[in-house]
Structure formats: C-alpha cells, structure tokens
Amino acid sequence: MVSPLALGMGIILLIAATDDDDGGGNFNLSGAGSLRVGKGYVPAQYADLIQKAAADCDAGLPAAVLAAQLMQESNFNPQAQSKDPDTGRPIADGIAQFIPSTWAVEGVDGNGDGVKNVWDPEDAIPSQGRMMCKLLKTAKQHPEYNGSPIELALAGYNAGWGAVQKHKGVPPPSFAGGQTYDYVRIIMSNVEKLTAPDASEDPEMFGEWGLPVNAPVGTPYHQQGGAWSSGYHTGVDFVAPSGTTVHAIGPGKVVAAGWGGAYGNQVVIRHLDGMYSQYAHLSKVRVSAGDSVSGGQVIALSGATGNAFGPHLHFEIRTGPDYGSDVSPLPYLRKKGINI
C-alpha cells in the first residue's frame, strides 16, 4: 500500500500485484511461535524471519503485528514496488516497502552476506523489525499521544514520526486522504487473523464466550487523562463492587496470575485465537499461571488493588501478554458474540 515515510513526503503509492502462492497449507511451524502460517495467512518461508525480528525487539513487539504490516505493505511479495501514480517513477521497494533514503539509514545485512539488499526478505524483514522496535520505544515515551504504542509505531513507519508528533497521535482521517489512519486500522484488524490458535491448550477445555463480570461498563477505552501512567485508558472498566465474581471471557490458558504493579492483582489469559484478555485490580485471584480455563469459569474477585481510585474491574484485550499491546476490547467481544 505505502512505504515507510512515504506519506510524510506527500506521495501516494501503488503496490505491484502478487500471486497467491504462499508456500504451504494452513499449518504452524514449530519455530513460528504465535504466527498462523499457510495459504491466506503468513507464508511459511517468512514465518521464522518475522518471529525472529519480533523476538529481537526488547520493547514487546508481537510477531503478528509485523506479519500484518507486511501483508498490508506488499502482500508478502519481495518483488513489490510502489510507484508514483502520475509519473510511474519507482518510489518504494521490496517486501517491507522501504524508500531508498529510509533504507540507507534503517537497512541491515540480516543474513550476513555482506550486502544490504532491500529486495531480499532476509535483510528487509529484520530491517522492518528494527525500525518498528525503535519507533515502539519512542512511542512509549509519549503516553499523552492518542493511540496505543503499537498504533503510534505503525503510524510512524507509514508517515514518519514527524506526522505522529504533529498530530499528537495517529494522524486523523483528514491527513493524507486517510491513508495513515486506514493503514493502522487495517493492520490492527489483521493481527488476530495472523495469530495462531494455541495448539497447546488442553483438548477438554470448553465453554461459551461471555462478559467478564455482571456489571455495567464505566470508563471507556482510550479515555485521556492523568489518572493513567500511559496518559490514556488502555482498557475498559466495569463498575463492580469488591468481591464480584470475575469470569474468563472464553477458553484459554492462564499466562499470568498475581501482582501486576499498577494493575494490582491481575490475571492474563491467552485464548485459542492467540489473543489475550487481562483482568486487573482484583481482590482475590483464584487461578494460577499454567492453568487451563473454560469460558465462564470464575478466575477472581473484583477489587481495588494497585492504582485504583475505587473498586472496579479493569479489562483489556491484547495482541500480546504485556502492557502496550492493547486493542479496543468491545469490538473483540462483539466478534465473539457477546452482546455489550
């Protein structure tokens, strides 16, 4: 769709068409970690490169975000080239769509053959991961900006960090014909699609999807304010008095249970679709890390532990287990058939 920093230069790009041969059926590589691999998902030949690029970032960069970004940039086509629609002049190259000036700074010799080749995925994908990691670290220094750190990093990759600074967040639809806004939105919507189901879950797990607590919604997602260290609300709050039973929204495996700093007592669950749900400020935790849970199972009691002004349940949906990978929770719940 567009190349790194291209929109910041006011250029509209067109991606070359690609074929649909992605190198395999719908299966998971042992080294691919959380990626869904196969036709219509992540091509098998790039899965380990993407997973390693994500793992090399110490800022919490999910592999599925890099994969969704490559899908949007080039549809995983290493020969993709963007062109100026008026002149036909080549603008951006390769699977990660680097413009030459950005490649000169951000390109790395990923495979150690002595050449930084933008057309070689073994160089381009590590370069993409390195650039996104730098942007993610910068984004985390600006909690006052509108958007999660990953959304801000994606906007910076697309339009340049200057555009993010100017708009104090993800540029609005009025910027560049909405291209950066749509770029971020589309990538974030594809993260779930490219995240592998958790094949390690116990086969006997069961349970429907439902609300985490029987209580009304209070503070919404992304509300701005100084009450949060991020500068905005990273989840939604349910107005529940202390001691209210908290339920797993769906089947999954507990990856964290216990003290979570500002979140107080928390539970984090990885679900079969590879997404994570977090439940925070709990008064009591009734599960342990490693437990398999069914949908609707009681996992905790609500409370006011950590940085909380009163009892409630703070609830997040994440693309990864840690802070900074949040996405809007209510659309996710609705996709699971939960009426809210």
Task: Write up this protein.
Helix content is 26%, strand content 16%. It has 340 residues and is an alpha+beta fold. β5 and β6 form a beta hairpin. α4 packs across α5 (149-159) and α5 crosses α7. The longest helix is centred in the middle third of the chain and has 19 residues, at 121-139.
Task: Present the secondary structure layout.
Blueprint: H1 44-55, H2 63-74, E1 81-83, E2 90-93, H3 100-106, H4 121-139, H5 149-159, H6 161-167, H7 179-191, E3 236-238, E4 245-247, E5 252-259, E6 265-271, E7 276-285, E8 292-293, E9 298-302, E10 313-318, E11 326-327, H8 329-335
Antiparallel strand pairs: 1-2, 3-10, 4-9, 5-6, 5-8, 6-7, 7-9, 7-10, 10-11
Structure keywords:
single chain; 340 residues; alpha+beta; nine-stranded antiparallel beta sheet; two-stranded antiparallel ribbon; 11 strands; elongated
